[in-house]
Amino acid sequence: MSTITNDGATRLDAVAAPWHARLYVQVLIGIALGALVGYLWPDVGAALKPLGDALIKMIKMAIAPIVFLTVVHGIASLGDMRKAGRIGLKTVIYFEVATTAALILGLVVINLTRPGVGMHVSPASLDSRLVASYVTQSHDQSVVGFLMNVIPSTVGGAFTSGDTLQVLFFAVLFGIALQRFGENGKPVLQAIERLSKILFILIGMIMRIAPIGAFGAMAFTIGKYGAGSILVLSHFMLVFYLTCLLFIIVGLGIVSRLAGFSIFKLIRYLREELLLVLGLSGSESVMPRFIDKMKAAGCAESTVGLVIPTGYTFNLDGTCIYLTMAAVFLAQATDTPMSLVQQIGLVVVCLLTSKGAAAIPGSGFIVLAATLGSIGHVPVASIALLLGIDRFMSEARALTNFIGTAVATVVVSRWEGDLDRAQFVRALDNPDAATLSS
């Protein structure tokens, strides 16, 4: 159960609340009921899509201002601007190493398991019109186009386009300018802090209907795509899910252990957000709560404000695993030979095309089309084979991306010496008593 304190903090009083009043339990019930309704009454389930869409839109309307206020406050509060640059550099390096490891892991596993071998699918037998819109959108996924898109055409455009990276770009510049304004900028900094608290209270209010949104989103997913889509490609789906799990438990688990904490305790601490990511098939809608949760765990605001928004663009571990696995799977399924050199080239291309993927449903499919178009070897029309299961695959992608960014936030905070160890240990050992403070 959530209560809002006088200072604008949201306290999770789950210790005193009955089990059915806890948000993660309500979300889990909503997901289960949604899956049941979608399975038993597919038409009804598909018609419930607006419930999930409404929740996502309500949260997304606050994402841009929250990212802006958090980043500006974090940077303007720093005494040394070199620290902001150092945090940014460490973050990007960490993300590049992590995503490269994810790409290589996906490539190794798909070659060992070979789930597409023996399917003998002819690309000519697939309806290319089903993926025409994705192929069209993939043409905009060039590196130069991506870099130019980071710069908003107008300040207002950064907030209305829904592009978090544009908001982050403007927020960094604004935060630096506010810091250089010195004492004269203190009233603006105080106003930003108060506005931030108001917005986090707003998010707390919206999150009370999260179980309903998760119910509608899951009912739509099962109702529209059904269990039949899963059964046809169940082998590939199982391999992909297990690979993501391997990356989280082994890869991120080792990183977490080296940083002095348990990946399992971090996952337990973020269980409510993870359930929402699962139910809504995307992680962008939990970003405001994610930011607040990591600050409550003892990570410095300046680090949280830079790492999390950047991670939503650059730290797409699950998406990278999917890109290499899906590309090679489609080559196997269509009997298209791929040499070792071509697969290494695929990894290089994916390192570039994955940066054009946002943490929203469907983006991984668009980037897959861009990747296949870039390597020019596997028929682009073959992605129609994955169309029916992409919604289910996006859930695993989003969960992996989210956990990867959470680990990165803690690691970078520790590197910078900005992690309050005592508060972090308390939060992970007793997540139900954690306080989300803006």
From TrEMBL:
Q: Which species does this protein come from?
A: Bradyrhizobium ivorense
- Entry's Gene Ontology cellular component terms: plasma membrane
- Signal peptide boundaries: none
Provide the taxonomic classification: Bacteria, Pseudomonadati, Pseudomonadota, Alphaproteobacteria, Hyphomicrobiales
Q: Where in the cell is it found?
A: Cell inner membrane
Which Pfam families does this chain map to? SDF (PF00375)
Q: Where are the transmembrane segments?
A: 21-41, 61-79, 91-112, 155-178, 198-220, 232-254, 311-331, 366-389
Q: Which GO terms describe its molecular function?
A: fumarate transmembrane transporter activity; malate:proton symporter activity; succinate transmembrane transporter activity
Question: What keywords is this UniProt entry annotated with?
Answer: Cell membrane, Membrane, Symport, Transmembrane, Transmembrane helix, Transport
Q: Which domain of life is it from?
A: Bacteria
Write down what this protein is called. Answer: C4-dicarboxylate transport protein 2
